[in-house]
Amino acid sequence: MNPKEALLDPDVMRERYRVERDKRLRVDGNDQYVDVVGPFAHYTDDPYIESGIDRPPLVDEVDVVIIGGGFGGLQMGARLRDAGVEDLRIIEKGGDFGGTWYWNRYPGAQCDIESYIYLPLLEEVGYMPREKYSHAREILDYSQRLGRHYRLYDGALFQTEVTGMSWDDQLSRWIVDTNRGDSLRARFVAMANGPLNRPKLPGIPGLGDFAGHSFHTSRWDYEYTGGGPDGDLDRLADKRVAVIGTGASAIQCVPFLGEAAEHLYVFQRTPSSVDVRGNQPTEPGWAAGLDPGWQKQRMENFNGLVSGLPQPEDLVDDGWTDLIGKMIRRFREASADGSVDIPEVMELANFDKMNEIRSRVDDLVEDPEVAEKLKPYYQMFCKRPTFNDEYLPTFNRPNVELVDTDGKGVDRITERGLVVAGVEHEVDCMIFATGFEVGTPYVRRAGYEILGSRGRTLSEKWTDGMATLHGMQSRGFPNCFFMQISQTAFTANFPHLLEELTTHLSHIIGHALDRGISTIEVSQDAEDAWVATIREKGLGAMGALGGADCTPGYYNNEGQAREPGSIQAAPYGGGSIEFFRILQQWRDDGDFAGLEFTHSSTKDGGRPPE
User: Fold this and answer.
1) Where, residue-wise, is CATH 3.50.50.60 in the chain?
2) Distance between CA atoms of residues 96 and 307, nearest Å
């Protein structure tokens, strides 16, 4: 069988995928990553603050505290403003709004979801992105525009980290403590910490031994590299630089490092799938002709396609939706002879797409050996796909060297550099392009413990598995709202999920404030029923997004068998479209099913009047 025939043989491809997966399996799973505390805490320092904020500790009370000033906090604040809530504070550890886009300012940083559906509230704010895929600087500027538009700077606490949260049963208030000595009392708390806020470091032996310079991509050190987000990293001209990781952030910054460094080593454990970016400026005529409601329609069109639900047309038409088009074509071909095996159709379409991705590597990389190492052998969506037109050609530069670790990762770090397969690569600077913690416990990612009613911690309650109603509220933690993927829904376009969650939560909080409701608690029956639903639905779409057959990554718990109860932390298995309908129907019913309300005058019991 020649190589081209092998690419078309499903059995051959399944076996190749299995071999590539197995060589990357590790017994330590998520434990392979080091917590960024103690000697590694400096990797979370903020390099973007020009001057620190000096203020006295606050002791006050507000209706709502929102923790996190990224898109989640901004969308939550916007929807609360829409609901008439004026008394709120946003607590953000960064120096301004932006969340992941505050931290990620590395050269080339850019959204990989179309900006017309990724940037939230465009119609409400009256803004149109400059390009199909916005760069980080524009997204950060837009985040600040959202803050101004909805008056969210009023009362915002920047450069401030929450250190603890505890519910006062007597006051029916949350006490929120911070690293600045603040002690805030809040009727409601919305946890908009976000899934991409805590840098992840690989637990490579000798991690702390390196004598040169090092930093994480989410805390880019322009003082060391020179230049800015558009490149021109002039201070690297005499530097040997190592990039550890080949995920989304590396894909975007490697071309700029390749241009600037004397020598660049790219250390790879698993290659990413790198599809065409094809970015284009926004066409003014197209933007002017859009009808009201266009963004919601476009978001739902995209979400339908990536969820496998055919649409009358593909409004976004990019690498994300291209796979669905291939599935539909395969489906029609199979339907012609009357035999349709949907799993087989999906798998063959996936093979088509990944063969296309691998062929693109051959087209763009001149050295056949290097090209082969850059080819991803796994199903698309086992790892988050990337889109870039400059990354692959960078390996044609004489000063750029791919150090492929054959799935094992770097052996160890020394005082002078990194060792792979017994060879030490001496460098002046190490850049960790290793992403953010996703699979670690919620409290570790949040950075503080939450004490609920009667002093029970969230960690204690969720010891045997996460338990919520709709992923947003947990019994024993009244007036506290979570904004996350677990027990809600997975969407490729995360701000779309945030739009649905914040619409839902502002509906509940607005109702409580209008009716003088003191506490909102989840009934035990409602929580048990939702947990049962999550377990019954299983992984659903997430089975394809990082299932057991996938190469290890954060989608599939680093390839490890999930612990008992961990299925309860999965997104709703029926998919995001079905989940959004459940929330909409719940709101339309108007009876706030599964919630127990206590009025200020009946703090020890009772429900609102019918």
Assistant:
1) 3-34+201-277+347-432, 61-198+439-602
2) 34
Alpha-carbon distance of 307 to 575, in angstroms, equals: 7
* pLDDT, tens digit, 9 for 90 and up, residues 135-190: 999 999 999 999 999 999 999 999 999 999 999 999 999 999 999 999 999 999 99
Residue 279 near residue 418, CB atoms below 8 Å: no
Q: What is the mean pLDDT of residues 389-407?
A: 97
**Distant-in-sequence, close-in-space partners of 409: CB < 8 Å, separation ≥ 6:** 202, 204, 269
Token readout for 113 is 């979801």
Residue 397: C-alpha distances to residues 299, 358, 427, 607 (Å): 39, 20, 18, 69
Interatomic CA distance for residues 272 and 566, integer angstroms: 27
Mean pLDDT is lowest, of 125-134, 216-225, 440-449, 596-605, for 596-605
**Architecture field, domain 61-198+439-602:** 3-Layer(bba) Sandwich (3.50)
Which residues, including other chains, have CB under 8 Å from residue 315's CB and lie 6 or more apart? 297, 298, 301, 302
pTM over 0.70: yes
**Closest among 147, 36, 79 to 481, alpha carbons compared:** 79
Mean pLDDT of 25-51: 82
> Which letter does DSSP use for residue 569 in this model?
G
Q: In what order do the strands lie in the sheet with 213-216?
A: 213-216, 429-432, 240-244, 263-268, 400-404
Asked whether the beta carbons of 268 and 244 are under 8 A apart, the reply is no
User: What distance in Å separates the CA atoms of residue 546 and residue 62, rounded to the nearest whole number?
Assistant: 41
Is residue 239 predicted with pLDDT exceeding 80? yes
Query: How confident is residue 41, by pLDDT bands cut at 50, 70 and 90?
Result: confident
- One-letter amino acid at 189 equals V
- From 259, 279, 253, 266, select the one nearest 107 (Cα to Cα): 253
**Please, what's the b/e burial string for 266-279 (b: 16 or more CB within 10 A of its CB; e: otherwise)?**
bbbbbbbbbbebee
Alpha-carbon span 66 to 74, nearest angstrom: 9
Residues 356-382, mean pLDDT to the nearest whole number = 95
In this structure, the chain runs to a length of 610
> 3-34+201-277+347-432: which CATH number, 3.20.20.10, 3.40.190.10, 3.50.50.60, 3.40.50.1580?
3.50.50.60
